[in-house]
Amino acid sequence: MTFGERFTMSNVSDCLLVSFPKITEPRGNLTFIEGGRHIPFSIQRVYYLYDVPGGSERGGHAHKQLNQVIIAMAGSFDVVLDDGCEKKRVHLNRSYFGLYICPMIWRELDNFSSGAVCLVLASSYYAEDDYYRNYQEFLRAVKGGEGDE
Ligand code: TYD
């Protein structure tokens, strides 16, 4: 399956862990990410969560069109993926792995370690009208197939 084929799907099984190149040297490791090569879209936006208090939860929404890759740049946290039928919890704790999240996946982030930094690579600029922030509304959209409106 190619990355392009994954774009149109909205199942938790399509949210794959991507492994980035890692150059290991005695003076330290280096990882690089190239848009459209190591991730299935060109990067239009980068944002990051940091100074997350213990016990905090982030996310709690789905995107209609946005593709994202989430990376634990430091520390660790969990991402709970939910396509309306199935849920999957993914623990991220290595900066050379990214979790690809396709559109129409409800996600929640929790279990942040102290000092965790969550980096997000996104396919579009921030747009509030791309969000489902209400879970029941999200469920209606995925069950009714209205997600790509
Ligand atoms: P939100 O997407 O709810 O954060 P999270 O999913 O991590 O819990 O965004 C929190 C606030 O930040 C909200 O007011 C929107 C704003 N925001 C931007 O202005 N630009 C961005 O790129 C993002 C991701 C959020």
Describe this structure as you would to a colleague.
With 149 residues, this protein is mainly beta. 27% of the residues are buried. Strands 1-9-6-11-4 form a five-stranded antiparallel sheet, with no helix packed on it. The chain has a five-stranded antiparallel sheet with strand order 8-7-10-5-12. The model is unreliable at 1-8 (pLDDT under 50). The protein has helices at residues 3-7, 135-144, and strands at residues 17-19, 22-25, 28-31, 45-49, 58-63, 68-74, 77-82, 87-92, 97-101, 106-110, 117-122, 131-132. Strand 7 and strand 8 form a beta hairpin. The two termini are 25 Å apart. Helix content is 10%, strand content 40%.
Taken from the alpha-carbon principal axes, the silhouette is globular
Structural class determined from secondary elements = mainly beta
Average pLDDT number: 91
Number of strands: 12
The N- and C-terminal alpha carbons lie at a distance of 25 Å
Largest sheet: 5 strands, antiparallel
Q: Please mark out the parts with pLDDT under 50 across 5 or more consecutive residues, or reply none.
A: 1-8
Number of helices: 2
Order of helices and strands: HEEEEEEEEEEEEH
Percent range for β-strand residues: 35-45%
Radius of gyration: 15 Å
- Please bin the fraction of helical residues: 10-25%
Which ligands accompany this protein? thymidine-5'-diphosphate
Set out the fold topology.
Elements: H1 3-7, E1 17-19, E2 22-25, E3 28-31, E4 45-49, E5 58-63, E6 68-74, E7 77-82, E8 87-92, E9 97-101, E10 106-110, E11 117-122, E12 131-132, H2 135-144
Antiparallel strand pairs: 1-9, 2-3, 4-11, 5-10, 5-12, 6-9, 6-11, 7-8, 7-10
